[in-house]
């Protein structure tokens, strides 16, 4: 694994746990973690459960005991590390957004497609797909339970940038993060919308804003924010269904608020990450006198991922999405099946993000998303 902070800790939790909950065909071994600071990476290795520490990702990739490289660094290093790892014969898991630009993501897809012919798997870390309630939602959409799709409505809101004195960091610099709330949070809801709908967005119309233009640096100076604080956009799916998206890191009181609703001709589905064990379903075909949204408690053994966990009603949390991600990746490696979400799925999300930025720069003009 490269990087050992927020996502590094979450992925470590996934790698430690997956083989103890699920019967996996292969055993994940946490052989080495990489960071740039020798003392800090050794401490992280001890805390998170990695056997060895490296200070250069190239050394990590060169190790014979490393067969899978898990990339948990900011977006500016995803493409270089992923392409090098794939060319060195390793499987790759890469955090989202896949890259900082469409061109980088295209290079990653080329490397992943060549690697797949050699039996190597490359997956992008859209972990929310692995929330059981959202996996169930996908299953219900695919089974026709909401019929022809008309609307997807998605919001992903946080509030850690409401405070104008919140410090500068890599997430606020375009050269490190690619974009702001758009790539950080918007990437998740774009992926979820396309995944749940089972089709892609063909065009978008957007507005973006940076509310606080400069922020304090650790040396006492001030640095310019070069990414968006918020992005709002509408979109059209290939089928003609409509979508709306809102993402912000300046939405006071919203900590990690991801909500998504789908409306179809036969019914609707709604999900709220703050109640992640639940899925709301309205069946439009039921008699009107007793119809309405019902709360499905997604903790039954027949629900996705749940057979391996606790008895009904006992509930899972955020971290379990990373356990499921590790489980699905190990199974893809064992069977050689093309993984989901693939690097190609990550590229498609990247194309939507680029179209959003282009539309916002052109006064919200409707901008096509190339296939
Ligand atoms: N799936 C999710 O829900 C989710 C949530 C948060 C972040 N992310 C993504 O995960 C990635 C990392 O974000 P984070 O929140 O963990 O960031 P972070 O700042 O908490 O951690 C980044 C880590 O990368 C290390 N790093 C940076 N450059 C490196 C290099 N060249 N070599 C080795 N290590 C390097 C840093 O030292 C640090 O350990 C980003 O792509 C981000 O968008 C995904």
UniProtKB/TrEMBL annotation:
Residues 1-115 form the Gfo/Idh/MocA-like oxidoreductase N-terminal domain. InterPro entries: Gfo/Idh/MocA-like_OxRdtase_N, Gfo/Idh/MocA_oxidrdct_glycsds, GFO_IDH_MocA-like_dom, NAD(P)-bd_dom_sf. Pfam families: GFO_IDH_MocA, GFO_IDH_MocA_C3. Coiled coil: none annotated. Keywords: Oxidoreductase. Residues 136-269 form the GFO/IDH/MocA-like oxidoreductase domain. The keyword Transport does not apply. This is Gfo/Idh/MocA family oxidoreductase. It comes from Streptomyces decoyicus.
